[in-house]
From TrEMBL:
<dbReference type="GO" id="GO:0016209">
    <property type="term" value="F:antioxidant activity"/>
</dbReference>
<feature type="domain" description="Thioredoxin">
    <location>
        <begin position="1"/>
        <end position="160"/>
    </location>
</feature>
<dbReference type="InterPro" id="IPR013766">
    <property type="entry name" value="Thioredoxin_domain"/>
</dbReference>
<dbReference type="InterPro" id="IPR000866">
    <property type="entry name" value="AhpC/TSA"/>
</dbReference>
<dbReference type="GO" id="GO:0016491">
    <property type="term" value="F:oxidoreductase activity"/>
</dbReference>
<protein>
    <recommendedName>
        <fullName>Thioredoxin domain-containing protein</fullName>
    </recommendedName>
</protein>
<dbReference type="Pfam" id="PF00578">
    <property type="entry name" value="AhpC-TSA"/>
</dbReference>
<dbReference type="InterPro" id="IPR036249">
    <property type="entry name" value="Thioredoxin-like_sf"/>
</dbReference>
């Protein structure tokens, strides 16, 4: 079963994620004061994800000057804590993304190749630019770990879109 592409310009389905180190959940798809960039990663089992997230963490202050940054996977709390302890990431790290949330975002969903990889369904990478009104402005999804956006280019493009109040593209 594949996931339907999300509609840019439309209200994103409201969903909440458990945030590591807090009893508060992070909710996307609701009105707020700032833009949000949601990054979905495959989980603890993915070394390419770690490289990407380490790069994100290195440029995080530049991102936070412009928007909120949320990172989520289907991992459980224990796996998310292990990654946070190993890498010392500063962004909001969320865990426990479920299959319905993956599919609502139009993500590719994979089964593990073995129990050594992971033990349940997980989302392939995605990045979502969400306007303060909760509508989806930008979507970047991949069906595997090798294709990731260039963080510098993505931030530059998002700044341009925000500053110029650009409309969504790819709506047809």
């Amino acid at each position: 079963m594949t996931s339907a592409k999300p509609n840019v310009g439309a209200q994103i389905e409201q969903m909440s994620f458990l945030r590591l180190g807090s009893e508060d959940k992070i909710t996307i798809g609701q009105k707020k004061d700032r833009w949000t960039m949601l990054f979905v990663y495959r989980g603890k089992h993915c070394p390419r994800c770690k490289r990407f997230l380490n790069k994100l963490n290195a440029v995080l202050p530049s991102w936070l000057d412009v928007m909120d940054v949320v990172v989520v996977s289907a991992d459980n709390q224990e796996k998310a804590e292990a990654d946070k302890a190993e890498f010392g990431w500063d962004f909001d790290l969320c865990y426990g993304m479920n299959e319905a949330q993956m599919r609502a975002l139009g993500l590719y969903v994979s089964s593990p190749l073995s129990d050594a990889e992971t033990t349940g369904l997980f989302a392939e990478p995605g990045a979502f630019g969400i306007r303060p009104n909760g509508t989806l402005m930008l979507v970047d999804i991949s069906n595997g770990p090798a294709a990731r956006p260039d963080l510098e280019e993505l931030l530059d493009g998002m700044k341009f879109n925000i500053d110029s109040d650009r409309p969504e593209r790819g709506t047809a």
